[in-house]
Amino acid sequence: MHKLTVSDGYTYLTRHVAAGDAGLSAGESLTAYYEQTGNPAGRWLGSGLPTNGGGQLRSGTAVTERAMTAVFRDGCDPMSREPLGKPYAQIRPGEGRHAVAGYDLTVTAPKSVSVVWGLADEETRATIYEAHTAALSSMLRFVEHSVIRTRVGAAGCRQIKTRGMLAAAFDHWDSRTGDPNLHTHVVVANKVQGVDCVWRSVDGRTLHAAVVTVSELYDALLADEVSRRVGVAWSLRDRGERRNPTFELEGVGEDLLSEFSTRSEQIHCAEQRWAQEFTEQRGRAPSRTETTRARQHLTRETRPPKVVRPLRDLLLDWGNRARALTGLEPVDLAARALTGTYSRPLAARDVGPEVRAAIVAQVLEDVSTRRSVWSTWNLGAAALRCSKPLCLATPDDRLELTNDLVKMAGDACLRIDDDTDMGRHRVGEECFTSAELLEAERTLLHAAETALPLGVPALADRLADRELNDLAEDQREAAKAVLLSGAALDVLVGPAGSGKTTTLAALADTWRLMRGDVVGLAPSASAAATLSGALESRCETTAKWLYESTGDGASRRAVRYWTEMAALEDPAANAWDKRARPTDDATLLRRTRSSGGSGGASS
Q: Phi-psi bin for 360: left (phi > 0), alpha (psi -120 to 50), beta?
């Protein structure tokens, strides 16, 4: 999803979205484009279409350029051209920032579905397209009922429901590099009627918060629709670190997916270059959130010009490419994915309590490993993700099951926001956490308030000033505060680019002079390797460290530690010579514990 502004966004809408990403010039006609390519015109959608004056605009009516201009540039009724509420007002003219005209929701079928659609016979292709449009319609009904809101009251302090959305939908067949890519742009106008019939703007914050849930809902609905119409089987495919697996059709090989994913490969290569530069500059690997934001930016930055061709030409090209790659006929390749067995779809009531409990456990694991505080929208996205393998009989069954799972998951969480004034809450913004996370937070807070019996070395203040002299003033003060605090836990916080890694490296060097060894811990092996290079210290994953701090893991760490110590005392000795260490793990464990740590090294 991205916002469309009144000026630049409207141009993007008419010259690109409505024209299959062709990038029409200002003098070219949309009507001529549709006639030349045979591609379908857009269609109006939504139960919030205006009904005042000039006749009623019905859902499914073809979108004209004149009507688009009225709605998305002028904020007017597409039929009567009467203003829909307050007209769009420019903000800070000359700076390129303008009022929001709408929101472009791009709804894309999984790559395997697009490949089968592009290679199959005409009947199967029509069936898959019908499944896509049915899933899209069900998804948009949910958006209208549960997501589209507006705000009233002083400074928009209260959120209310609307009478529906005003939207235009445009089907596209291919990616910018000419690969099969069945998708639909749904452009939601930033004009809605509240239940009081007054036209206002959409509450964009709720739309942004719900977008991942809406995306997961479409994926689940599409899987249901395709499964009910043709015999298929689905499975999860890994997309690499920091990205969710995709739910793809079985029978479509990775060779075909790669052949028809050239645009994705362009973005992936750009993402890899960005991640490498990020790691080199900041001394750590990017987080999932940083990667997602970068990928969105790189998608726009690497966007090539598109040559729009009629669907018949695209189908011929896709068939030739598939035939050259595999030596098989396109329809035979598509048929491989259509060999799944038909099974009775489930009603929501058919999903028993044991299965529901297992899904809820997955949901809670999903949200609690991604964030420390989550919303109802987060629970909804996770519930859809975890229940996707179940084929449901109807869209209503899918929504009923999802609502039940979200309620069960919410009841198992701790509500931490103020629910006494629900009028000021946006839908889906309820905040939750878990007892385990709160206990972890209490442990950290206690550690930050607990002084260790280390004492402050003589002349520590002067030593810190000398060793940290090369840092900027704010970095030096932060590092010095950690060195001299004596607390069991200190936290170094700073925005991106503020030099946290540089500060941490200097802190580690000075700590070694003042107190001893430094051990770095990171959430993943790649992050630990990056941290080790930045600090020039031994770094491990947190999971490994925790495992080797108690029980059998601690015994193994003790064996390794005393072996290393013996080798240091007698370099000529064989590191694995049993004479260089005690012979039983119990003795090693007692000796390690008496030395003050699970590994015998201070950190």
A: alpha
- What type of residue sits at position 168? A
The whole-number pLDDT of residue 588 equals: 37
**With left for phi above 0 and alpha for psi between -120 and 50, is residue 54 left, alpha or beta?**
left
Q: Report the DSSP beta bridge partners of residue 102.
A: 4, 189
Which of 145, 166, 155 shows the shortest CA–CA distance to 210? 145
Gap between the Cα atoms of 173 and 126, Å rounded: 13
| Contact status, residue 547 vs residue 553, Cβ threshold 8 Å | yes
How far, in Å, are 83, 163, 383 from residue 198 at the CA level? 12, 10, 35
In 274-388, beta strands by DSSP E: 374-375
* Nearest CA among 182, 207, 45 for reference residue 108: 182
Quick one: tokens of 28?
């070219």
Residues with Cβ within 8 Å of residue 283, at least 6 apart in sequence: 501, 502, 504, 505, 530, 531, 533, 534
- What mean pLDDT is reported for the chain? 83
Kindly give the parts of the chain with pLDDT less than 50.
90-91, 93-96, 573-603
Instruction: For residue 86, give Cα distances in angstroms to 82, 101, 326.
Output: 11, 12, 58
Alpha carbon 39 to chain centroid, angstroms: 31
Nearest to 140 by CA among 118, 113, 169: 169
CB atoms within 10 A of CB 477: 12
| pTM, entire model | 0.80
Q: Which residue reads 């119409």 in tokens? A: 229
Q: Report the C-alpha gap between 102 and 136 in whole angstroms.
A: 18
CA-nearest of 74, 75, 48 to 194 is: 48
Which pLDDT does position 328 carry in this prediction?
A: 95
In eight-state DSSP terms, residue 252 is -
Q: Tell me the C-alpha distance between 182 and 133, whole Å.
A: 11
What does the block give as tokens for 240?
């690499």
Residues β-bridged to residue 601: none
For 487-602, where are the E strands, in sequence order?
519-522, 538-541
Residue with token string 């003795």: 587
Sign of CA dihedral 482, 488, 493, 499: positive
Give the contacts of 76 (CB within 8 A, at least 6 positions apart).
70, 82, 83, 84, 87
